[in-house]
């Protein structure tokens, strides 16, 4: 056990018991707690071993599961703003500059989950960089960033979105309603879980698009993190919105001043790949939510249209 303290060994044993009971969310939380105390737990056929966590240098790249969570800690910022960087760092820089310009004295925490190996020195001292291993999927990268959230409100951003004014005020105000779970400027609706359309107006919708999603930090405790089987971003936002709604909250479109630029990942992915991956993700969504028309604002199930 590399001379691990007794309390660390007890935590590791508790984690092993949780894994045996297939309580994997509890096991993951205990692994994060061990990491925050400076220890890595390595599973072995006969049990586990503990190793001191190696201090990370600026060039180190980590597995998303090894990123320690701070979600059990008290919030220290007004808003956590996070991006997944899969390329085009200039887009995230543009958004960062805009958030800084319109912060209005609020405490904003910036987190970038980087899959590219970009130099951490590029971003500025107010940005936390999580340098993830090459090949990390979109869902796992997004969750790595979410685990570092210290803001009372969390913004899940795409680099294509540039704030042009105060976006924090309207979002935080909307989330003061405890019935509201997830908000953003772009929403979609569906009557049959087959076809999805842009929400026609501000207000309740069926899902918030992942270009800009926001929720209170505690919603993560109710809805959990993103499904890490979504290696590609498409439909992951719809699936997560449905989980938030299934936890008893509403999804609401909130207009905010932003400019929407080209979505680089979509336009730089070969059409045959994005079609295949999008289809796979949609079926992943259906695996969990098929028939859940009760979560739609204006459901019209196929059987009801045929009668």
Which terms summarize this structure?
single chain; Spore Coat Polysaccharide Biosynthesis Protein SpsA, Chain A; 307 residues; three-stranded mixed β-sheet; globular; alpha/beta; five-stranded mixed β-sheet; 2 domains
Explain this structure to me?
This protein has helices at about 5-20, 25-35, 90-100, 140-145, 170-175, 220-225, 235-245, 265, 270-290, 300-305, and strands at about 40-45, 45-50, 75-85, 110-115, 125-130, 150-155, 160-165, 180-185, 185-190, 195-200, 205, 205-210, 210-215, 250-255, 260. It contains ten helices and 15 strands. A hairpin with a 2-residue loop joins strand 1 and strand 2. Strands 5-4-3-6-13 form a five-stranded mixed β-sheet. It has about 300 residues and is an alpha/beta fold. The mean pLDDT is about 90. The radius of gyration is 20 Å and the shape is globular. Helix 1 (about 5-20) runs antiparallel to helix 2 (about 25-35). It has two domains: about 5-50; about 65-295, Spore Coat Polysaccharide Biosynthesis Protein SpsA, Chain A. About 40% of the residues are buried.
